[in-house]
Amino acid sequence: MKISAHRFRPMDIVGGDLAVDFVNTVTNWDVAPSDWLDGYERLLEWAALTGRFDDAELAGLQRRAAADPKDAGAALARAKALRLALYEVLRAATDGRSPSSEAVEAFMIAWKQAALVSQLDLSAVPPRLDLDAAQAGLDIVAHRVAAAAMELLTDPRLARLKRCHGSRCGWLFVDTSKAGRRRWCDMTTCGNEEKARRYAERRRGTD
Ligand SMILES: [Zn+2]
User: Fold this and answer.
1) From ligand 1's centre to the CA of 129, what distance in Å?
2) Under a CB-based contact definition with an 8 Å cutoff, are residues 23 and 36 in contact?
């Protein structure tokens, strides 16, 4: 897959779920996929935009990655393997088919690794499952994504998971609109592109 340097912006976070947004760090999945994670630092840049990681946590990961780039590279590779498995599993859900057993297996392995370093905090209201940051180390981003994916896959929200209709997009999103008729990852990008394409088609039709 082609890797391209991309500066993440808030408009890249449109999936409505951490796991979905992580899958969307690849764009144009179907036609010519482009991987926007060109390094571990970039993964942290993305994580910061999701609002699911606090600044101190991210700063700690940044220091650790800088001190051991080889470890950071390996953690990024594990995150990308999870992303590929999740794309298959989530994409299958949008298509109404069963995902490949290899993808399910890879996702389950990643989720179990996250579960191994999780702690149940019963004193929180409501009780929650926390990742032990020290044990999770550089894998904390992937672990949190895996935990989010399991929540989504076992939740009625899964029925609202959709794929953008944009011609060169392939992004997934959870449609939280009341009517459930959202068709694009973002109306201002893919939605407009689609409108322009239809307009051009109509023009051609009348020439
Ligand atoms: Zn789109």
Assistant:
1) 32
2) no
Confidence grade of residue 207 (pLDDT, cut at 50, 70, 90): low
CA of 22 to the centre of ligand 1 (A): 15
Render pLDDT for 71-127 as a digit per residue (tens, 0 to 9).
999 999 999 999 999 999 999 999 999 999 999 999 999 999 999 999 999 999 999
Whether residue 33 contacts residue 26, with contact meaning beta carbons closer than 8 Å, is answered with yes
- Comparing 142 with 192, which gets the higher pLDDT? 142
Of the candidates 83, 99, 97, the one whose C-alpha atom is nearest the C-alpha of residue 36 is: 83
Write down how long the chain is: 207
Q: Please, are residues 42 and 12 in contact by the beta-carbon 8 Å criterion?
A: no
Show the tokens assigned to 95.
């298509």
Between CA 3 and CA 135 the distance in angstroms is 29
Closest CA to 137 of 40, 14, 13, 7: 40
Ligand 1 (single-atom ion) residues, CB below 5 Å: 164, 166, 169, 171, 185, 190
Cα 18 to averaged position of ligand 1 atoms, centre (Å): 17
pLDDT of residue 190: 86
